[in-house]
Amino acid sequence: MIVRSWSERASIQTVVIREMICVWMRFNAKANKCIIILISVLILTGCDNKPDNMLSGYSHGEFVYLSYSGNEKIERILINKGDNVAAGQELVKIESFDAQNIFLRAEEKLSAESALLRNLESGERPEELDIIRSQIKKAQSAESQVKRQLGRYRNLYANHAISLAEWEDIRDELTQKAHRLKS
Question: Which residue ranges does UniProt annotate as crossing the membrane (predicted)?
Fold first, then answer.
């Protein structure tokens, strides 16, 4: 029998005492003395004012559902159902093949980007600058050639050697070529 409170304990003891008194009264005087001693002991042990440590009701634990967005296979679960876990505690051991490959690819990409950054920070090399200078000279010479051709065709149109339509076509073509060279 589980006793839940002090008052319940006292009422049970009272019932037991009453029953014992009735049974023992039927016996001799010696038995009556034993009964009185037993009753006294029961009364004294039942009269405590300690708070009960027993509670009634329900207790609910906190459940947390975990998930992982990767597609690696779980090799081993390191905890059991109902275990208490701390923040940062390793819960499972996952397949390391994919994770290692992703990590190695990220390291390779980092080293390539670092090399590119060092290359860009070092500035232009003399050979590259020479190529750019020659491209500028070529564009300048092509621009002066377009201007000379435009002047010649202007003179031909002024002397009525070419028609207005031919002059406009040549002028538009050379103007577009000049704009392409400037950009």
Answer: none
**pTM for this one?**
0.31
The C-alpha torsion from 9 through 14 and 15 to 19, rounded to 10°, is 140
Of the candidates 154, 148, 153, 143, which has an alpha carbon nearest to the alpha carbon of residue 180?
Answer: 143
Distance of CA 149 to the CA centre of its chain: 67
What six digits make up the tokens of 51? 């708070």
112: left (phi over 0), alpha (psi -120 to 50) or beta: alpha
How many residues can be counted in the chain? 183
Task: Give the integer Cα–Cα distance in Å for 5 and 49.
Answer: 11
Contact, 40 vs 20, CB < 8 A? Answer: no
H or E, element range at 97: helix 96-121
Return the bridge partners of 95, or none. none
How many other C-beta atoms lie within 10 A of the C-beta of residue 153?
A: 19
pLDDT tens-digit series, residues 66-119: 777 777 788 888 988 878 888 888 888 887 777 778 888 899 999 999 988 887
Report whether 62 contacts 41 (CB < 8 A). Answer: no
Question: Considering all CA atoms of the chain, what is the largest pairwise distance in Å, rounded to the nearest integer?
Answer: 161
